Amino acid sequence: MTRSFRLTAALALLAGLSVACRSGSPPSAAGTGPAAAAGGDKGHDGPVTWLWPAPAPASTGMPAADERDVTFTYGHEHLVLLDAGGSPVWDVARLGLRDVAPRLTDDLVLAATDDGMAAFRRADGTKVWDTPLQARPNTPVVVGRLAVTSTWEGTLVALDLATGKVAWTLPLGGAAIGPPAADPAGLVVVTWEQDQRQGAGAVAVDGASGRKRWSVPLPPGGVSAPGLTPDGLAVVVAGDLAAHGLALADGKERWRAAVEGAGSPEVPPVAVGPGTVLTAHRLGGLDLLDTGTGGRTWQVRSDGAAVRGGPVVAPGGNSFAFPLDDGRMLLAGPTRQTELRQAPGRISGLAAGPGGLLVAATRGAAVNTVQATPRW
Protein backbone atom coordinates (compact mmCIF):
# COMPACT_ATOMS: atom_id res chain seq x y z
CA MET A 1 0.00 0.00 0.00
CA THR A 2 1.11 3.57 -0.63
CA ARG A 3 0.95 6.65 1.58
CA SER A 4 0.48 10.30 0.68
CA PHE A 5 3.06 12.94 1.43
CA ARG A 6 2.54 15.27 4.38
CA LEU A 7 3.26 18.60 2.81
CA THR A 8 2.78 20.60 6.00
CA ALA A 9 5.33 18.49 7.86
CA ALA A 10 7.75 18.67 4.97
CA LEU A 11 7.59 22.45 4.85
CA ALA A 12 8.06 22.63 8.60
CA LEU A 13 11.18 20.52 8.40
CA LEU A 14 12.68 22.52 5.56
CA ALA A 15 12.08 25.74 7.46
CA GLY A 16 13.79 24.34 10.52
CA LEU A 17 16.99 23.06 8.98
CA SER A 18 20.16 25.07 9.51
CA VAL A 19 23.76 24.58 8.56
CA ALA A 20 26.91 25.53 10.43
CA CYS A 21 29.78 25.75 7.97
CA ARG A 22 33.45 25.32 8.71
CA SER A 23 36.36 25.94 6.43
CA GLY A 24 38.82 23.25 5.46
CA SER A 25 41.58 22.81 2.94
CA PRO A 26 43.13 20.08 0.84
CA PRO A 27 46.13 18.06 2.02
CA SER A 28 49.44 19.75 2.55
CA ALA A 29 52.47 18.89 0.47
CA ALA A 30 53.56 16.51 3.22
CA GLY A 31 50.38 14.49 2.67
CA THR A 32 48.39 15.31 5.81
CA GLY A 33 45.48 17.72 5.53
CA PRO A 34 44.70 20.15 8.34
CA ALA A 35 41.72 19.86 10.63
CA ALA A 36 38.56 21.82 9.87
CA ALA A 37 38.64 25.29 11.40
CA ALA A 38 35.60 26.89 13.00
CA GLY A 39 33.60 29.16 10.75
CA GLY A 40 30.33 31.08 10.61
CA ASP A 41 26.79 29.79 10.27
CA LYS A 42 25.70 30.07 6.65
CA GLY A 43 22.06 29.32 7.48
CA HIS A 44 21.45 27.35 4.26
CA ASP A 45 21.40 23.62 3.61
CA GLY A 46 21.09 23.62 -0.16
CA PRO A 47 18.34 22.25 -2.40
CA VAL A 48 16.23 19.19 -1.67
CA THR A 49 15.49 16.81 -4.54
CA TRP A 50 12.69 15.07 -2.67
CA LEU A 51 11.50 14.55 0.90
CA TRP A 52 9.47 11.74 2.50
CA PRO A 53 8.02 12.39 5.98
CA ALA A 54 7.31 9.52 8.36
CA PRO A 55 4.07 9.69 10.34
CA ALA A 56 4.67 11.23 13.76
CA PRO A 57 6.03 10.09 16.13
CA ALA A 58 7.59 7.22 14.16
CA SER A 59 11.35 7.50 13.60
CA THR A 60 13.06 6.34 10.44
CA GLY A 61 15.96 3.90 10.21
CA MET A 62 19.11 3.69 8.14
CA PRO A 63 18.45 3.80 4.38
CA ALA A 64 19.71 1.61 1.56
CA ALA A 65 19.55 2.49 -2.12
CA ASP A 66 20.57 1.59 -5.64
CA GLU A 67 19.94 3.37 -8.94
CA ARG A 68 16.27 2.29 -8.92
CA ASP A 69 14.91 2.51 -5.41
CA VAL A 70 15.36 3.57 -1.79
CA THR A 71 14.32 1.44 1.19
CA PHE A 72 14.26 1.86 4.98
CA THR A 73 12.17 1.00 8.02
CA TYR A 74 10.20 3.32 10.28
CA GLY A 75 8.39 3.02 13.58
CA HIS A 76 9.86 -0.42 14.30
CA GLU A 77 7.07 -1.98 12.24
CA HIS A 78 7.04 -0.63 8.68
CA LEU A 79 9.25 -1.26 5.66
CA VAL A 80 9.03 1.23 2.78
CA LEU A 81 10.23 1.19 -0.82
CA LEU A 82 10.47 4.53 -2.64
CA ASP A 83 11.19 4.98 -6.33
CA ALA A 84 14.04 7.11 -7.67
CA GLY A 85 11.89 10.22 -7.36
CA GLY A 86 11.04 9.63 -3.70
CA SER A 87 7.47 8.45 -4.31
CA PRO A 88 6.21 5.43 -2.32
CA VAL A 89 6.04 2.15 -4.22
CA TRP A 90 4.80 0.18 -1.22
CA ASP A 91 4.68 0.26 2.57
CA VAL A 92 4.29 -3.02 4.48
CA ALA A 93 3.87 -3.74 8.19
CA ARG A 94 5.83 -6.28 10.21
CA LEU A 95 6.17 -5.75 13.96
CA GLY A 96 9.76 -5.86 15.22
CA LEU A 97 11.68 -4.52 12.22
CA ARG A 98 15.13 -3.25 13.19
CA ASP A 99 16.28 0.22 12.14
CA VAL A 100 19.46 -0.99 10.41
CA ALA A 101 19.68 -0.63 6.62
CA PRO A 102 17.80 -3.26 4.60
CA ARG A 103 19.50 -5.00 1.67
CA LEU A 104 18.25 -4.68 -1.91
CA THR A 105 18.63 -7.54 -4.38
CA ASP A 106 17.23 -7.73 -7.92
CA ASP A 107 14.03 -9.34 -6.63
CA LEU A 108 13.94 -8.90 -2.85
CA VAL A 109 14.24 -6.44 0.01
CA LEU A 110 15.87 -8.12 3.02
CA ALA A 111 15.08 -6.61 6.41
CA ALA A 112 16.53 -7.48 9.81
CA THR A 113 14.02 -8.11 12.60
CA ASP A 114 14.39 -8.24 16.36
CA ASP A 115 14.80 -12.01 16.20
CA GLY A 116 15.67 -12.90 12.60
CA MET A 117 15.43 -11.89 8.95
CA ALA A 118 12.50 -11.32 6.60
CA ALA A 119 12.38 -11.04 2.80
CA PHE A 120 9.82 -9.05 0.81
CA ARG A 121 9.20 -9.10 -2.93
CA ARG A 122 10.69 -5.96 -4.41
CA ALA A 123 7.93 -5.60 -6.98
CA ASP A 124 5.00 -5.33 -4.59
CA GLY A 125 6.14 -5.82 -0.96
CA THR A 126 4.67 -9.30 -0.57
CA LYS A 127 6.40 -11.24 2.20
CA VAL A 128 8.40 -14.14 0.73
CA TRP A 129 9.78 -15.60 3.96
CA ASP A 130 10.32 -14.69 7.61
CA THR A 131 13.01 -16.70 9.42
CA PRO A 132 13.45 -16.63 13.22
CA LEU A 133 17.08 -16.80 14.38
CA GLN A 134 16.68 -16.11 18.11
CA ALA A 135 19.23 -13.35 17.56
CA ARG A 136 19.44 -9.71 16.44
CA PRO A 137 20.93 -9.66 12.94
CA ASN A 138 22.58 -6.81 11.05
CA THR A 139 22.37 -5.74 7.41
CA PRO A 140 23.23 -8.85 5.36
CA VAL A 141 25.52 -9.24 2.38
CA VAL A 142 24.53 -11.35 -0.62
CA VAL A 143 26.83 -14.17 -1.76
CA GLY A 144 25.40 -16.10 -4.69
CA ARG A 145 22.11 -17.65 -3.56
CA LEU A 146 22.70 -16.80 0.11
CA ALA A 147 22.22 -13.82 2.40
CA VAL A 148 24.92 -13.76 5.10
CA THR A 149 24.37 -11.77 8.28
CA SER A 150 26.14 -11.27 11.61
CA THR A 151 24.31 -11.09 14.94
CA TRP A 152 24.63 -9.27 18.24
CA GLU A 153 24.63 -12.67 19.92
CA GLY A 154 27.92 -13.59 18.22
CA THR A 155 27.13 -15.72 15.17
CA LEU A 156 27.50 -15.53 11.41
CA VAL A 157 24.47 -16.99 9.63
CA ALA A 158 23.68 -17.74 5.97
CA LEU A 159 20.08 -17.89 4.71
CA ASP A 160 18.86 -19.25 1.38
CA LEU A 161 17.48 -16.31 -0.62
CA ALA A 162 14.68 -18.38 -2.16
CA THR A 163 13.35 -20.04 0.99
CA GLY A 164 14.88 -18.31 4.01
CA LYS A 165 16.19 -21.66 5.26
CA VAL A 166 19.40 -21.49 7.31
CA ALA A 167 22.24 -22.85 5.17
CA TRP A 168 25.04 -22.62 7.74
CA THR A 169 25.92 -20.99 11.06
CA LEU A 170 29.34 -20.10 12.46
CA PRO A 171 29.91 -19.04 16.10
CA LEU A 172 32.15 -16.01 16.63
CA GLY A 173 34.30 -15.06 19.59
CA GLY A 174 31.94 -12.31 20.73
CA ALA A 175 29.12 -9.99 19.71
CA ALA A 176 29.03 -8.69 16.13
CA ILE A 177 27.24 -5.33 16.40
CA GLY A 178 28.25 -4.26 12.89
CA PRO A 179 27.50 -5.82 9.49
CA PRO A 180 29.73 -8.22 7.57
CA ALA A 181 31.36 -7.34 4.25
CA ALA A 182 31.85 -9.51 1.15
CA ASP A 183 34.19 -9.38 -1.85
CA PRO A 184 33.21 -10.33 -5.44
CA ALA A 185 34.68 -13.82 -4.98
CA GLY A 186 32.31 -14.54 -2.08
CA LEU A 187 34.68 -14.13 0.85
CA VAL A 188 32.82 -12.76 3.88
CA VAL A 189 34.65 -10.84 6.64
CA VAL A 190 33.15 -9.93 10.01
CA THR A 191 34.50 -8.42 13.24
CA TRP A 192 33.48 -9.19 16.82
CA GLU A 193 34.20 -7.98 20.33
CA GLN A 194 33.57 -9.45 23.78
CA ASP A 195 31.95 -7.62 26.69
CA GLN A 196 34.21 -5.67 29.03
CA ARG A 197 36.83 -5.44 26.26
CA GLN A 198 38.14 -8.93 26.99
CA GLY A 199 38.92 -9.69 23.38
CA ALA A 200 38.14 -8.86 19.75
CA GLY A 201 38.94 -10.18 16.32
CA ALA A 202 38.18 -10.53 12.61
CA VAL A 203 37.06 -13.70 10.85
CA ALA A 204 36.90 -14.52 7.13
CA VAL A 205 34.78 -17.35 5.74
CA ASP A 206 33.81 -18.78 2.38
CA GLY A 207 30.34 -17.34 1.93
CA ALA A 208 28.97 -20.31 0.02
CA SER A 209 29.96 -22.99 2.52
CA GLY A 210 30.68 -21.17 5.80
CA ARG A 211 34.17 -22.68 5.90
CA LYS A 212 36.52 -20.50 7.94
CA ARG A 213 39.47 -19.13 5.95
CA TRP A 214 41.25 -17.25 8.73
CA SER A 215 40.76 -15.65 12.13
CA VAL A 216 42.94 -12.97 13.71
CA PRO A 217 42.79 -11.07 17.04
CA LEU A 218 42.31 -7.30 17.17
CA PRO A 219 42.91 -4.84 20.01
CA PRO A 220 39.57 -4.47 21.89
CA GLY A 221 38.08 -1.24 23.12
CA GLY A 222 36.12 -0.23 20.02
CA VAL A 223 36.31 -2.23 16.78
CA SER A 224 34.67 -1.14 13.54
CA ALA A 225 32.96 -3.37 11.03
CA PRO A 226 35.31 -4.26 8.18
CA GLY A 227 35.63 -2.41 4.91
CA LEU A 228 37.02 -4.30 1.90
CA THR A 229 39.15 -2.76 -0.85
CA PRO A 230 39.53 -3.83 -4.51
CA ASP A 231 43.22 -4.56 -3.98
CA GLY A 232 42.62 -7.31 -1.46
CA LEU A 233 42.46 -5.76 2.02
CA ALA A 234 40.07 -5.83 4.92
CA VAL A 235 40.47 -2.54 6.79
CA VAL A 236 39.33 -2.24 10.42
CA VAL A 237 39.64 0.56 13.00
CA ALA A 238 40.38 -1.00 16.40
CA GLY A 239 40.69 -0.15 20.08
CA ASP A 240 44.38 0.71 19.85
CA LEU A 241 43.43 3.94 17.99
CA ALA A 242 44.68 2.58 14.70
CA ALA A 243 43.43 1.35 11.34
CA HIS A 244 44.65 -2.13 10.41
CA GLY A 245 45.05 -3.34 6.84
CA LEU A 246 44.57 -7.12 6.78
CA ALA A 247 45.25 -9.21 3.69
CA LEU A 248 42.08 -10.91 2.47
CA ALA A 249 44.09 -13.94 1.43
CA ASP A 250 45.36 -14.89 4.88
CA GLY A 251 44.45 -12.19 7.42
CA LYS A 252 48.04 -11.06 7.92
CA GLU A 253 48.49 -7.41 8.85
CA ARG A 254 50.03 -5.46 5.97
CA TRP A 255 50.08 -2.12 7.77
CA ARG A 256 48.88 -0.23 10.84
CA ALA A 257 48.00 3.48 10.72
CA ALA A 258 47.43 5.57 13.85
CA VAL A 259 44.15 7.50 14.01
CA GLU A 260 42.70 9.70 16.75
CA GLY A 261 39.89 7.47 18.03
CA ALA A 262 38.75 3.88 18.38
CA GLY A 263 36.38 2.23 15.96
CA SER A 264 32.59 1.94 16.13
CA PRO A 265 30.91 -1.34 15.13
CA GLU A 266 28.41 0.28 12.76
CA VAL A 267 30.95 2.60 11.09
CA PRO A 268 33.00 0.57 8.57
CA PRO A 269 35.79 1.98 6.39
CA VAL A 270 34.90 2.60 2.73
CA ALA A 271 37.06 2.06 -0.35
CA VAL A 272 37.53 5.25 -2.39
CA GLY A 273 38.62 4.43 -5.92
CA PRO A 274 41.80 2.44 -6.58
CA GLY A 275 44.40 2.55 -3.84
CA THR A 276 42.67 4.56 -1.10
CA VAL A 277 40.33 3.80 1.79
CA LEU A 278 38.35 6.21 3.97
CA THR A 279 38.37 5.36 7.67
CA ALA A 280 36.28 6.95 10.41
CA HIS A 281 36.70 6.86 14.16
CA ARG A 282 34.27 7.47 17.01
CA LEU A 283 35.58 10.96 17.77
CA GLY A 284 34.03 12.11 14.50
CA GLY A 285 37.14 12.34 12.31
CA LEU A 286 37.99 10.94 8.89
CA ASP A 287 41.33 9.71 7.52
CA LEU A 288 41.99 8.89 3.86
CA LEU A 289 44.68 6.19 3.74
CA ASP A 290 46.82 4.67 1.02
CA THR A 291 45.93 0.98 0.82
CA GLY A 292 49.45 0.01 -0.17
CA THR A 293 51.24 1.56 2.80
CA GLY A 294 48.62 2.85 5.23
CA GLY A 295 50.00 6.35 4.79
CA ARG A 296 47.58 9.21 5.41
CA THR A 297 46.85 11.37 2.37
CA TRP A 298 44.12 13.54 3.91
CA GLN A 299 42.45 14.09 7.28
CA VAL A 300 39.61 16.06 8.84
CA ARG A 301 38.51 16.37 12.46
CA SER A 302 35.25 17.39 14.09
CA ASP A 303 34.12 18.12 17.63
CA GLY A 304 31.42 15.43 17.48
CA ALA A 305 31.08 11.72 18.12
CA ALA A 306 30.35 9.03 15.55
CA VAL A 307 28.79 5.75 16.55
CA ARG A 308 26.23 4.87 13.91
CA GLY A 309 26.38 4.79 10.12
CA GLY A 310 28.55 6.29 7.43
CA PRO A 311 30.79 7.50 6.03
CA VAL A 312 29.36 7.79 2.51
CA VAL A 313 31.40 8.59 -0.59
CA ALA A 314 29.96 10.78 -3.36
CA PRO A 315 30.31 9.78 -7.01
CA GLY A 316 33.79 10.78 -8.12
CA GLY A 317 35.26 10.14 -4.67
CA ASN A 318 36.03 13.76 -3.77
CA SER A 319 33.31 14.42 -1.21
CA PHE A 320 32.41 12.46 1.93
CA ALA A 321 29.40 12.65 4.25
CA PHE A 322 29.55 11.45 7.83
CA PRO A 323 26.75 11.56 10.47
CA LEU A 324 27.64 12.71 13.98
CA ASP A 325 25.72 11.54 17.01
CA ASP A 326 24.35 14.97 17.95
CA GLY A 327 22.43 15.39 14.71
CA ARG A 328 25.08 17.16 12.69
CA MET A 329 26.48 15.91 9.41
CA LEU A 330 30.13 16.41 8.46
CA LEU A 331 30.76 16.97 4.74
CA ALA A 332 34.38 17.13 3.66
CA GLY A 333 36.88 16.01 1.06
CA PRO A 334 40.38 16.64 -0.26
CA THR A 335 39.21 19.21 -2.81
CA ARG A 336 36.10 20.74 -1.20
CA GLN A 337 35.24 23.08 1.63
CA THR A 338 34.39 21.35 4.90
CA GLU A 339 30.88 21.87 6.28
CA LEU A 340 28.89 20.88 9.33
CA ARG A 341 25.16 20.78 8.66
CA GLN A 342 22.70 20.69 11.53
CA ALA A 343 19.50 18.63 11.45
CA PRO A 344 16.59 19.01 13.92
CA GLY A 345 17.32 15.77 15.77
CA ARG A 346 19.65 12.82 15.36
CA ILE A 347 20.56 11.42 11.96
CA SER A 348 19.74 7.72 11.69
CA GLY A 349 21.99 7.16 8.69
CA LEU A 350 23.15 8.27 5.27
CA ALA A 351 23.35 6.64 1.84
CA ALA A 352 24.17 7.58 -1.74
CA GLY A 353 21.23 7.04 -4.03
CA PRO A 354 18.73 8.54 -6.47
CA GLY A 355 18.65 12.29 -6.13
CA GLY A 356 22.05 12.56 -4.46
CA LEU A 357 22.81 12.16 -0.76
CA LEU A 358 20.03 10.48 1.22
CA VAL A 359 19.82 11.94 4.71
CA ALA A 360 17.93 9.21 6.43
CA ALA A 361 16.72 10.44 8.65
CA THR A 362 16.34 12.62 11.68
CA ARG A 363 15.28 10.99 14.94
CA GLY A 364 13.90 12.57 18.07
CA ALA A 365 12.41 15.53 16.23
CA ALA A 366 8.79 16.49 15.74
CA VAL A 367 9.17 15.55 12.09
CA ASN A 368 11.12 12.47 10.96
CA THR A 369 12.04 12.25 7.31
CA VAL A 370 14.13 10.77 4.57
CA GLN A 371 15.31 13.36 2.08
CA ALA A 372 17.63 13.55 -0.91
CA THR A 373 19.90 16.52 -1.55
CA PRO A 374 22.02 16.90 -4.70
CA ARG A 375 24.56 19.24 -3.08
CA TRP A 376 27.22 17.30 -1.20
Task: Tell me what the structure shows.
With 376 residues, the protein is mainly β. Helix content is 3%, strand content 45%. The chain has one helix and 33 strands. The strands form eight sheets. A five-stranded antiparallel sheet has the order 1-30-29-28-27, with no helix packed on it. A four-stranded antiparallel sheet has the order 2-33-32-31, covered by helices on one side. The chain has a four-stranded antiparallel sheet with strand order 3-4-5-6, with no helix packed on it. Strand 21 and strand 22 form a beta hairpin. The chain is globular and about 45 Å long. It starts with 6 loop residues before the first helix and ends with a strand.
**Broad shape:** globular
What class would the helix/strand composition place it in? Answer: mainly beta
Measured by DSSP, the beta-strand proportion falls in 35-45%
Rg of Cα set:
20 Å
- How many beta-strand elements? 33
The helix tally amounts to: 1
Which strand order do you get reading across the main beta sheet?
A: 1-30-29-28-27
Task: Compute the separation of the termini in Å.
Answer: 32 Å
Percent of residues in helices: under 10%
Quaternary organisation of the protein chains: single chain
Overall mean confidence score, pLDDT? 87
Question: Segments where pLDDT lies below 50 for 5+ residues?
Answer: 1-44
The main β sheet shows up as:
5 strands, antiparallel
